[in-house]
Amino acid sequence: MEFHTLSSPHTKRVNRVDKVMLQVVLALMPGITAMIFYFGWGVLINAVLAILSAVAFEAMVIRLRKRPVMPVLFDLSAVVTALLFAVAIPPLLPWWLVVMGIAFAIIMVKQMYGGLGYNPFNPAMAAYVLLLISYPVEMTSWMPPYLLADHHLTLPQILAFKFSGVLPGELTLDAITMATPLDQMRTNLDLNSMISEIRQSPLWGDFGGLGWEWVGNWFLMGGIWMVYKRTITWQIPLAFLTGLVSMATIFWLFDAESFPFPLFHVFSGGVILGAFFIATDPVTACTTRTGQLIFGAAIGVLVYLIRTWGGYPDAVAFAVLLMNMAAPTIDYYTRPRTYGHGEVKSE
User: Fold this and answer.
1) Which structural domain range is residue 261 located in?
2) pTM to 2 decimal places
3) How many domains does the chain have?
4) Alpha-carbon distance 308 to 165, whole Å?
5) Which among 141, 187, 315, 317 has the fewest CB atoms less than 10 Å away?
């Protein structure tokens, strides 16, 4: 038998970092395209600005660390971080907040811990949470979906607003933005409205907000493709969605007029993106199969708890970061037993 190497392992190296990251980028494309269609050119501008900033900050830090720059840049991990951050933030977020968030993600969360493979937290979600806490108004000002918008901004108009804060004519930011479906549902429930009344609004689709649920569908297609290509494993996404839907079902059965239908939680906000693209980050998630099931289910439960009784309606970023802290402990207690080290029973 002939082998490519003289010593084991004799298998070919197929899971290179750049190959895996490229597959993630490709899987994100359907969802990003859908976001551009429904929410305008601001999504694309955020993506381009985030990628350029991420590459620049990564190169700067690597140069300061006196390491070769090109191998690090070509692993595409900075590009993946930039894209995940770009689709999580509002399309009209000012350019300097996009750059600030990416600087925090790359410099403080990723490179300060030693670079790819050493960061304990998901960089994109850490940056998102930083901006959400520091600039809550800007981070919650989303444009309505294309089908519901009264004013459609052109690419030059969006560029002008993002880089100078100028809107055409007498338009104000309040006139071209609206609350997300999660915000609207939470606000109306706090006003003692019933679910059946809230759902009468034309803002709602079959399950989530109009437009938002189709964005989720396209991210779902990309996620399923990654599972098929074995870029990610199925344990975390399935456990995440199962944990969330199980919690939502229990309370929905208890009071369907006070707690939304379970699939509302799946197709509103960043659940699909989080389940397949964020929680599955191989660096910050659990690595054992049992640990991945616990990790994913716990994120799903936390998302529901924070959405229902916490102060942040989406909650995916907070839930992922909390479980990032718990991942090493979960892996420690779910390690498979080493072959030959089991207990020997005497007869």
Assistant:
1) 209-333
2) 0.89
3) 2
4) 34
5) 187
